Amino acid sequence: MTDTGPWWREAVTYEVYLRSFADADGDGLGDLPGLRSRLPYLAALGVDALWVTPFYPSPDRDAGYDVSDHRDVDTRLGTLADVDRLVADAHRLDLRVLVDLVLNHVSSAHPWFVAARTAGPGSPERTRFHVRPGRGPGGAEPPNGWQSIFGGSAWTPFGDGEWYLHLFDTDQPDLRHEHPEVAADALTTLRFWLDRGVDGVRFDAAGSLWKDPGYPELPPGWQPGDPAPYSDRDEVHEIYRRWARELAAYPGDRLGVAETWGGPEVLSPYLRPDELGQAFAMDPLYWPLRPQPWRDGIEALLAATTRHRRLPAWVHGSHDVRRAVDRWGPEAARAVLLLMLALPGAVYLYAGDELGLPEVTLPDDAIRDPVFRRSGGADRGRDGARVPLPWTAGPAPYGFGPDGSTPWLPQPADWGARSVARQHDDPTSTLALVRAALPLRRTCWRGRPAELSWRDAPAGCLAFRRGADGPTCLLNLGDGPVDWRPYGDRVLLASGAAETGRLPARSTAWLI
């Protein structure tokens, strides 16, 4: 029995990190017209949808995730008409479009926060934000010891005895979604983009929209990833139920996907029948490359999602983590991608990972990520995974922008050797592997049963079918080659050379 469900149930979605994808006007920033010009590349790649990172007006303190107007476009990145043209062009190519809504916080340049800063203690303008009196004489100490995800205190003083909460950068004050004006404005924003025809929404920092109103201290011994009074609280799910009703009111199976960080117990509640369609499965990014953790983790995520008649949204990479080839190694990054594409569920592929791009070590003076600044340079931040893509063999900017333009982050001298142009006709390239895998996935894996039938496998390996028959996926995480012939008569596709009946270490094969 198969279950195809809505379009997004087993879709492959490509994350377009807009600032680093394609620059049409030569100002160094990727933009909406640049993305439109590269839509045929995404269609040829074989993805089902694209998720576009924020393009809203922003002072750009956190690469556009500090939004000053949620219902417009930054003039450096395009116009509302460009959004409409992007959606129309994508739909003609059978591509769906997801936008990234940043509703946990706003920019410090947002009119609401500008008003809150000047209105003074106890003012109505400040009730839209998490504002508390400071501790100690004159309120000189922060209200509690909460730490920003980007480093340092999560509180910044107004200078009048009150402090505001920012789970991220100082320039990203958190909103109070229990405030009726905040709740109403978020709903208006969601409707605005759905009315423009987008096919879905990725909700940034999904679990952070509701904080414990008592602002309690974190317990002794607390570590990042532990339950916190500002993340994944029960109250946040009423917000998503409200937004899910709005998504369901539009035709075309509009998708809501939560950016969740955590294990099955964290993401499962977001997938209840009256909530969202997907929640990111980020845990695999950190599983050790050994068979048992992967088998246990896969089974746990499938159990947590299928109980709600949903499937996992496997994340292979994103703009918030190191490049896949740095996390797993070049061979294992290809192997993990083929594994994820064989599993039940959706897959999120980060721009440039289809080229096998490595993490880039940037000079200190080139780093823009506020994590670098707030950590005093101890954490180099995420910009190493955000370097603009190489489209041509060279010279710089390698087709990212017009000849002679300077990208917002510097590209390495060897970027042309990794470009789309260089990999296009190379049958051994990562680009060739992805272009072969995505259409093949549609015919041999997509829509098959969600239940995995595990097969006996050599040490260091995993092997499974979906259901009782069909192809076998064989993953070799061992240190040497293994014989694939007990699992099929021929190789449909492999991430490493498997012609001689041997599957190399750190490789995956699809077999029939």
Automatic annotation (TrEMBL):
State the SMART domains in the record. Aamy
Species per Swiss-Prot/TrEMBL record: Micromonospora pallida
PANTHER family under this entry?
ALPHA-AMYLASE FAMILY MEMBER, NEUTRAL AND BASIC AMINO ACID TRANSPORT PROTEIN RBAT
Give the organism's phylogenetic lineage.
Bacteria, Bacillati, Actinomycetota, Actinomycetes, Micromonosporales
MF terms (GO), sorted A to Z: alpha-amylase activity
Q: Which residues cross the membrane?
A: none
What this protein is called in its record is Alpha-glucosidase
Q: Which residues form the Glycosyl hydrolase family 13 catalytic domain?
A: 15-386
Which family is this protein grouped under? Belongs to the glycosyl hydrolase 13 family.
The UniProt entry's GO biological process terms, in alphabetical order, are: oligosaccharide catabolic process
> Which InterPro entries does the entry link to?
GH, GH13_cat_dom, O16G_dom_2
Question: What domain of life is recorded for the organism?
Answer: Bacteria
